[in-house]
């Protein structure tokens, strides 16, 4: 087996440049609109979540740093749906699909380029943009507020994790997020038409199925303890701040990328035009 | 070399296009691929280029399965499909973005053919006419120096002058290691340049011969009266005369009337070489 047929660094680099040359305008346009939308979201979220506290006999307005973390995760997931859901752009039209499939680049290189641009580069960019935009939104609010009555908690670029989280939990969250990207890749290669919408629907169906499965299993195994749509899941505390539900969810979260990435790869491999 | 053995193919829920089609095509020739509408000419090109996978049977290009789309093989396959893919960039940028994938790409040749076709590097692909787009893609295809050049209806939408330039350019560009397969309905556009005639009908290769073999065995005449003519293989009546195919006798070889030959094959005339 000639491994050069599957990956060649020079060809990969050329293909990465090719993708950037071809879609430079689209990427720039997206980033600019994204900056604007993210700014408006941050502004809205901060404005809606300011609350009053009493500090040394004065009432001041402030916001919880958890807001920064929750909105970070939500906007990241939503952006991924858009960004990863629209990967493999040429596969949306028959003419460009032909061109894309016949390009003398290996499938692995094609997938890697999408992964690097849409997951690695975009996520890094997102982390910094989100922080800058949040700070900017706060500065704008600060401009229009009485400076004495607003307290802005400090937060750094990488404060998107709850500080109390232990290292292993952080790793699990990162790997689970990685699995989300693998699901989005699988969905975008599976759905030829309206990939973003269909991906969201597929995600909804998956969550619904998991819920229905849990409810059904609860009714079968513990019929006396559940009613209607209730479910009962036993949870045991384990050493090192772990519990059984976390173990179960972490296993699903971490392992599903092993399932979804091959689906995406082989779906593309079998693609016809 | 193209090797096809027992090829079976049909699109989903449609009748079979190819039933145990077998043929071999050597490099160093221009093959005219003809057939009625729906006879599978474009599908044949897609199977050869690896865009679709046969239901059963073998398709091999230089011993490799094209559907694997290995970069080393794809560097030697270029398909100009009827569905033109034209990104919103200038000709110069297109060449910059795509040429480096083809190791044998000849920029000088590209400029020469573009000059013949009156195309400018600064032209924007979205702003030029369909015919110009087609000429550009033909120029690009020829400049890649790919071993297998597959042209699907290349003369559709091209003006009369450009058709003549196309023939001249094609003949001057092709080397002995290359094979060009031209699928077309417009037999007159290419009848002077093809080396081999491949006519597809009823899911099989019903006719696959070199033009020299045809000229050696068949005579194409235009006669006012055929009442005394013996050994007629096929004839067609036209205004004031008959177009006739008959076996070659001792007289001189005649030019092949491709249209008449095509009609003879489609009409199931008993043509034996």
Automatic annotation (TrEMBL), chain A:
The keyword Membrane applies. The chain crosses the membrane at residues 27-47, 67-91, 111-132, 171-191, 200-222, 242-266. Keywords: Membrane, Transmembrane, Transmembrane helix. The keyword Transmembrane helix applies. This is ABC transporter permease. It comes from Flavivirga jejuensis.
Automatic annotation (TrEMBL), chain B:
Residues 2-227 form the ABC transporter domain. GO terms for molecular function: ATP binding. CDD domains: ABC_DR_subfamily_A. InterPro entries: AAA+_ATPase, ABC_transporter-like_ATP-bd, P-loop_NTPase. Gene3D superfamilies: P-loop containing nucleotide triphosphate hydrolases. Keywords: ATP-binding, Nucleotide-binding. It comes from the Bacteria. This is ABC transporter ATP-binding protein. The lineage of its organism: Bacteria, Pseudomonadati, Bacteroidota, Flavobacteriia, Flavobacteriales.
């Amino acid at each position: 087996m000639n491994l050069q047929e599957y990956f060649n660094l020079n060809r990969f680099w050329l293909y990465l440049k090719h993708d950037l040359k071809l879609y430079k305008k689209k990427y720039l346009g997206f980033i600019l609109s994204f900056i604007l939308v993210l700014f408006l979201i941050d502004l809205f979220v901060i404005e809606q979540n300011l609350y009053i506290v009493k500090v040394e006999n004065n009432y001041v307005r402030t916001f919880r740093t958890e807001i920064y973390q929750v909105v970070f995760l939500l906007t990241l997931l939503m952006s991924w749906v858009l960004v990863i859901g629209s990967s493999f752009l040429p596969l949306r039209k028959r003419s460009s699909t032909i061109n894309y499939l016949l390009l003398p680049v290996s499938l692995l290189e094609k997938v890697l380029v999408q992964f690097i641009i849409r997951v690695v580069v975009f996520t890094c960019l997102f982390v910094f943009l989100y922080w800058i935009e949040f700070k900017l939104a706060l500065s704008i609010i600060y401009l229009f507020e009485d400076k004495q009555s607003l307290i802005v908690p400090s937060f750094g670029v990488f404060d998107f994790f709850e500080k109390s989280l232990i290292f292993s939990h952080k790793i699990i969250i990162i790997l689970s997020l990685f699995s989300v990207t693998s699901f989005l890749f699988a969905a975008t290669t599976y759905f030829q038409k309206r990939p973003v919408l269909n991906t969201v629907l597929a995600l909804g169906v998956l969550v619904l199925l998991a819920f229905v499965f849990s409810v059904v299993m609860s009714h079968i195994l513990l019929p006396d303890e559940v009613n209607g749509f209730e479910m009962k899941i036993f949870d045991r505390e384990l050493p090192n701040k772990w519990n059984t539900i976390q173990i179960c969810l972490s296993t699903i979260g971490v392992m599903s990328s092993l399932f979804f990435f091959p689906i995406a790869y082989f779906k593309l491999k079998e693609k016809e035009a | 070399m193209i090797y096809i053995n027992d090829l079976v193919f049909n699109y989903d829920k449609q009748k079979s296009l190819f039933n145990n089609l077998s043929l071999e095509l050597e490099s160093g020739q221009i093959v005219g691929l003809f057939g009625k509408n729906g006879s599978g000419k474009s599908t044949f090109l897609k199977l050869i280029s690896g865009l679709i996978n046969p239901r059963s049977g073998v398709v091999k290009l230089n011993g490799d399965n094209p559907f694997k789309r290995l970069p080393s093989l794809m560097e030697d396959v270029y398909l100009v499909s009827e569905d033109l893919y034209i990104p919103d960039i200038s000709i110069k940028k297109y060449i910059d973005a795509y040429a480096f994938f083809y190791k044998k790409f000849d920029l000088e040749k590209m400029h020469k053919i573009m000059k013949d076709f009156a195309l400018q590097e600064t032209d924007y692909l979205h702003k030029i006419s369909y015919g110009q787009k087609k000429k550009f893609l033909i120029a690009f295809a020829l400049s890649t120096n790919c071993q297998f050049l597959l042209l699907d209806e290349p003369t559709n939408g091209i003006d009369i002058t450009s058709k003549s330039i196309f023939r001249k350019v094609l003949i001057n560009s092709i080397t002995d290691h290359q094979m060009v397969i031209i699928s077309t309905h417009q037999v007159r556009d290419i009848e002077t340049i093809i080396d081999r005639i491949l006519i597809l009908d009823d899911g099989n290769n019903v006719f696959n011969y070199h033009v020299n073999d045809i000229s050696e065995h068949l005579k194409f005449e235009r006669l006012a009266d055929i009442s005394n003519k013996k050994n007629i293989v096929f004839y067609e009546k036209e205004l004031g005369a008959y177009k006739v195919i008959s076996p070659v006798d001792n007289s001189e070889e005649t030019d092949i009337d491709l249209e008449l030959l095509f009609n003879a094959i489609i009409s199931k005339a008993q043509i034996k070489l």
